[in-house]
Amino acid sequence: MIELKDIEKYYASKGVKSYILRHVSTTIKQGEFVSIMGPSGAGKSTLLNILGMLEEPTYGSYSFMGEDVTTLNERKRIELYRNHIGFVFQAYHLIDEMTVEENIEAPLLYKKVPGAERRSRVADILDRFNMVAKKDLFPNQLSGGQQQLVGIARALVAQPSIILADEPTGNLQSAQALQIMELFKKLNEEEGITIIQVTHSEVNAAYGSRILHLLDGVIKEDVNL
Ligand code: ADP
Ligand code: ADP
Question: Which intervals of the chain form a coiled coil (predicted)?
């Protein structure tokens, strides 16, 4: 599903290159649940953002579902993203002025899904997440854990092949964090959704099937659990 070959990312300032990622090569198959771990500054978020097409590598090739992402034009890349990728952020990135229901519906509007289908998909997700009673609330009326559930519901409504999550439980208490990890595990095992998360937590990583350890922009270890 994912093939990275010799990915490099650096920022150049006054002729000096600061490398964030070097020689990163790996493959990730459909159905894997991968955790990217490593100290702050190791390049974890940068790697995840490259996988999610939110950032471009400086060098190297990235193939996603058979498409060479690095040579696609912007329009094709956005289409590939909208059709396959659900991104979940540490700080949720919900739209404050929109209700729970409107936040969840937003990706379907971008994808121009017709109204009746939008309403039925959003209703299904609200039901499944036990959030029907909260659908008209705004993000700031919810706990952090509930906001993250909305963030995940919003990612799922577009029926992604893969969920990319950057420290999805980084702002949550442990009970809420466990709930999110249980949900990821279920989505992975029961629906075959590929999951890649950045995490500092060994507890979170233990929910997955593989850990990539990054250090100074290099994959130091690749462990199957
Ligand atoms: P960023 O993703 O912006 O680079 P960091 O990687 O520094 O941020 O940290 C992301 C989150 O993880 C923060 O909430 C931070 O408090 C927390 N964190 C950072 N280092 C650790 C650690 N060693 N163990 C547990 N949590 C950490
Ligand atoms: P991690 O998620 O492991 O904490 P990041 O991928 O967030 O690491 O960042 C890795 C390094 O890249 C950090 O030292 C960060 O300061 C640097 N970095 C990230 N974005 C930029 C940028 N736009 N310009 C320069 N340096 C950056």
Answer: none
